[in-house]
Description:
This protein is α+β, with helices and mostly antiparallel strands and 325 residues long. Helices cover 32% and strands 29% of the residues. It has 3 domains: 3-103, Rossmann fold (3-Layer(aba) Sandwich); 111-129 and 198-323, ATP-grasp fold, B domain (D-amino Acid Aminotransferase, Chain A, domain 1); 132-195, ATP-grasp fold, A domain (Dna Ligase, domain 1, 2-Layer Sandwich).
Amino acid sequence: MKKNIAIIFGGFSGERVISERSAKVVYKYLDTEEFKPFLIDIDQKQWDLIHKEARIPIDKNDFSVMVGGEKVEFDAVFCAIHGTPGEDGKIQGYFDTIGIPYNNCGVLASAITFDKAACNRYLKASGVNVAESYIARLGQTYDLDVIVERVGLPCFVKPNDGGSSIGVTKVKLKEDLENAIAHAQHEGVDALIESLLVGTEVSCGCISKNGKAISIGITEIVPANEFFDFDSKYENGATQEITPARIEDTLYAQVQKLTENIYTWLHCKGMIRVDYMLCKDGIYLIEVNTTPGLSEASIIPRQAKHFGLSLDEFFKLAILETIRD
């Protein structure tokens, strides 16, 4: 019998539009010989199954839905929600409570990685290089001179709990810091200010296969703009994303091994993508993405193909890893 798979998308952040693109790619390529996919929009007000251009409310008591007079229950969830509540552990806690398996990281790994500053502190303790940083807490005062003394200029200001480069600003002048911090806090909660890292930006995908972390490739990122912002990622198409990255073999292997270690240290599940800056003095972590984009423009699908997996094979593997226990 085919397994019913709920592909959830949407969420409560500005990443909704990217989430929908990801979900539609999963829905398009998921093996319908083995699975029966359903698209479900998770919104703050209501959760709906998208069925024949209609919207049918989900029963949140057991995450079921009535379709044509029949109750549909789900064997597993494929989470394509970027941002809250799909990437911060909230929806994972819900599914843990009602006993439905899901394809991405659990509550702890999701919560840690969604808080960029907390993730940096956690991984720095294991020897991972991270940029010098400062946290501007929402509602608390800060001293611009102290920030500049710590992180220097230029620097990056970003939401501490956001993704897709929404709310990120490259700041070159001290007088522009306050507006950049307010912009980041508007998109998230706190603002994370980090030193500028100079080097080659790369992104390494990692999956679980038979319960083991396996790196599937490294992509070199050459942004069309000053940095890998939202437009560079999704809109203008001029950014170069080169897989495999044009780095020497020893460094390539080091990045892959570090990514697999991070996957293990954080107790990750499913697919993740870890972004780095390769600097003269070492490999520096940018961030860990536990629900990476899966749109046609995204990095992970291209890395899967480089690894030798078609998208239908890739998504099938993700589901089988989810329900294999």
